[in-house]
Amino acid sequence: MADRPQAAPVPSVPSVPRAPAVPAAVRPAGAAGSVTVREYGTRYLRISVRYHGDARFSWLRVPGPAHDRPQTAPSPAAGAALRRVDAAVADAASGTGSGAGAGRGARLALGERAAVSESGERGGVVYRVPGAVSVARLLPSGDDTAYRLSVRALADLGRTLRQLHDVPWEFAEPVPPHHGVGRLLDWISGAAPDGDGARLRALAHDRLGARLWTRLTDWAVAAQEPPGGGGAVLLHGAPSTGWLVPSPAGDHSVLLTGEEVTGGDPALDLGWVLGELHELRSAAARGLGAAGQGPPVDYPAAARSLLDGYLRIEDAAATVEALPPGTARAATLRLAVHMRDFASFVGWHEDLRRYADLLAETLDADGAPTLRW
User: Are 127 and 57 in contact (CB under 8 A)?
Assistant: First the structure.
């Protein structure tokens, strides 16, 4: 789930100064030693952020009671490929190596197993990062510097996703399932019989009608199947603003990576982020949840920054036409997955009725609104 308060879900951006003043939550003042600065989560996952001094933070992700699968690391071959991508990103940022001149990207923070959490609970996965707050919190905060950090981090994310998608899935092991799509398919089929999730399923089935429910099902089934002709590439598996952590200094961003890594169509990764931004924009316009109650946010500029990072110079004139085929469908699936996850792992909220209407409208338009930035 995205790192934002749990509620039912232009002009060019100026460059970020080297050491901006940032919200207090980003850089704890006067913290000595190791201290917990943030804790949040759902029944699916609990997250604890600790500060270790010298702008060093750790994010511990511990399964909640509704977490239905082990937190698994990438295979050795996929892990080695991720480390090569991260090294290329680092080279590009420093102006060395074959990636030099391509613009900086988000560094990949690969998780490490934590056998036992500091509170004595079952393990989890810990990530070493340069900040305490993700883009999911910074982007809609109303703070101008936090917004600029977020927009720049989204461009970093776009560049790194493109680097990942240049790596074909040519590993010996089979492609792991896409966990988000898998949760959606379980919900569609009724195989996830939880109370509020089941209530939302009945509501969505009614609001979508048979035609659009079938379309949602077909798109989810197709997304879980590897691309034909050996076209699968390395995927992050669940990129989002909640996994993207900028440095408070504005000099680099980090993408938490590892638990969801899979292979497949690049549209799944890119669409996952665009679907989140489309949901936030739509929620703000309709007065839904935290997005609808917060300060105005230029979500189109944020999405364009992501796309500018992802698209290469030769693609610039084409924009939407240059995106991976199926990106709009993947973005629509992301909207459905987040709606399902909220009901199942947070609980019922009356705004879910209007989110179901938003899903119906997006499906009916073949996902096109998710690409209109």
Answer: no
CA-to-CA distance for 239 and 53, rounded, in angstroms? Answer: 27
pLDDT tens per residue across all 373 residues of the chain: 445 434 444 223 333 333 333 344 444 444 456 899 999 999 999 999 999 988 889 999 999 999 888 888 899 999 999 999 999 999 987 765 544 445 689 999 999 988 665 555 557 999 999 999 999 999 999 999 999 999 999 999 999 999 999 999 999 988 999 999 999 999 999 987 679 999 999 999 999 999 999 999 999 999 999 887 678 999 999 999 999 999 988 889 999 999 999 999 999 999 999 999 999 999 999 999 888 888 999 999 999 999 999 997 666 566 778 899 999 999 999 999 999 999 999 999 999 999 999 999 999 999 999 999 9
Q: What does the alpha-carbon distance between residue 289 and residue 309 come to, in Å, rounded to a whole number?
A: 29
Contact 55, 130 (CB under 8 A): yes
Catalogue the long-range contacts made by 208-216 (C-beta closer than 8 Å, 24 or more residues apart). 208/356, 208/359, 208/360, 208/363, 209/360, 212/360, 212/363, 212/364, 213/188, 215/363, 216/188, 216/332, 216/333, 216/336, 216/359, 216/363
Q: Is residue 353 within 8 Å of 203, Cβ to Cβ?
A: yes
d(CA 351, CA 332): 18
The sign of the CA dihedral 259, 265, 266, 270 is negative
Q: Is this model's pTM higher than 0.85 or not?
A: yes
d(CA 238, CA 180): 7
